[in-house]
Amino acid sequence: MNIILFGPPGCGKGTQAKKLVSDRGWVQLSTGDMLRAAIASGSELGNRVKAIVDGGNLVPDAIVIELIEERLPEAESAGGAIFDGFPRTVAQAEALDAALEKRGTQVDAVVRLMVDEQELVARMEKRAAEEGRADDNIDAFKVRLKAYQDQTAPLLPFYAAQGKLKEVEGMGSMEDVAARIAAALDTK
């Protein structure tokens, strides 16, 4: 099963993806983690990505899609992928659909985590304090939130039209949200 965890920055996608990996054995394909690894590598690509991410901007589709495609065989072996932070645009969604179709599979469900914007700011501040991520400062967060609203939110009707969108209340404890996600995934 291939699923997309969808929602604005700081909504808990990464936390819930890790829970799904633990519970179901699927592979988490977090573009954020992949991009941070590229940055940490100090490679030429990593340095280009760093400048983009530190400014709160979205990394170009071609780079992100290449990173995703490299990991698809691993996800297939595990029985599924959890796309976390991807796709972010309709063009990326179409590229993902094409990449999966070439492999004889598809996106099965899109789980939208619905949270309050004030809670997002509080979560971002906590994560920045705990993890010290440069991309979690308030200014970069506002840029990322606006990018989400302008570029990523249009994916909702794209996946709703395919009958794949499942909306889940994203507020509450990690366990409560995980239970709501499991219920949404286990119902047809």
From TrEMBL:
Pathway participation? Purine metabolism; AMP biosynthesis via salvage pathway; AMP from ADP: step 1/1
Q: What is this protein called?
A: Adenylate kinase
List of residues binding AMP = 31, 36, 57-59, 85-88, 92, 133, 144
Task: Give the primary localization class.
Answer: cytoplasm
Question: Where can this protein be found?
Answer: Cytoplasm
| Domain comment, as recorded | Consists of three domains, a large central CORE domain and two small peripheral domains, NMPbind and LID, which undergo movements during catalysis. The LID domain closes over the site of phosphoryl transfer upon ATP binding. Assembling and dissambling the active center during each catalytic cycle provides an effective means to prevent ATP hydrolysis.
**What GO molecular function terms would the record report?**
AMP kinase activity; ATP binding
Top-level enzyme category:
transferase
**Complexes and interactors:** Monomer.
Catalytic reaction annotation:
AMP + ATP = 2 ADP
User: What ranges does the record give for the region NMP, renumbered to this chain?
Assistant: 30-59
Q: Which organism is it from?
A: Maricaulis virginensis
